[in-house]
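Hey, can you fold this one?
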Amino acid sequence: MSEEVDAPISARRRRNIRRGVLLTFLAMFLVAVVVSGLFVYNLAHSFDTKTQKIAHAFPNETSRPVKPTEGPAAKAMNILLLGSDSRGDPVNLAEGGQPSDQRSDTMMWVHIPADRQNVYMMSIMRDTWVAIPGHGEAKINAAMAFGGVPLVVQTLEGLFKNRLDHVAIVDFEGFKAITDALGGVTVDVPFAFKAYTADYTFAAGPQKLSGDAALAFVRERYAFVDGDYQRVKDQQIFLKAVLNAVLTPGTLTNPVKVTDLVNQVSPYLSVDKGLDSAAVGALSLSLRDVRGADVKSFTLPTLGTGTSTDGQSIVLRDDDAITAIASNLTKDSLGSYLAGAGLG
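Sure. Predicted structure:
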């Protein structure tokens, strides 16, 4: 008789144990959701409050290319990344669309295709001789001085016949902040050189750079025979090294590292009003499978250097290359073009 009584009691206990386990896992799940929610909220709040907003990032709508509404290019994204060089006037003048003595010494057109399998970073030489709307021909980095960020956007959109979706400006000190937040960045230096602008000597080969060393690395041009050409290559090398460090499980799954990165870098970023934490989060999610090797960088081909009619040393634009790149941006086939042209 005792066996008949004990059996249902054991069954109840088993049910209670199972219920307890389920409730424990449910509680753990809810805690994880709350913690994750707070983590995401804090990251979003930090990005939105610490970044500077570009009041007028884009030119008048009537002067802009129309973004496709159908086909792959409709879902592709183009972002303008500028490295600011302060020369007296506060950067908010250029950000607000006013003339200033700012120069956009680092200029990258970042193309993210519709399939989100790659990221393409195209550097544009700052001395490239182009037509700047309302100002005739000049070095492309003069557009910032003539009319701030909107004129830079208008110049580039006119050059490549494609629309830019977002704009981000990184103060050079931001390179230092990124490096420090990551605990240093390993860069494969192509050849040894001594920086003229800072007391750093770089050996050839892979080496881990501190924030100050990274800043010296990306700014140096006087140490090279080809000046800005090598500086642009070094900036590409550095950015790819940063992406290699960021796009790893060790960073992406580490809340402390992610929080530190966002907190330290955000103050050095200026972004258009549409590039808020929600937009950045959605873009990051769509690029979740992209790794460092999927990021391709190249420099807009040129015809070498020359002299303008008024005696300036300039970089001669390659109109054929510009036309080809513009066409492939429109068709969202930039990857195929770069492979065929031996770029990237």
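The chain has a mean pLDDT of 85. Let me know if you want another pass with a different chain boundary.
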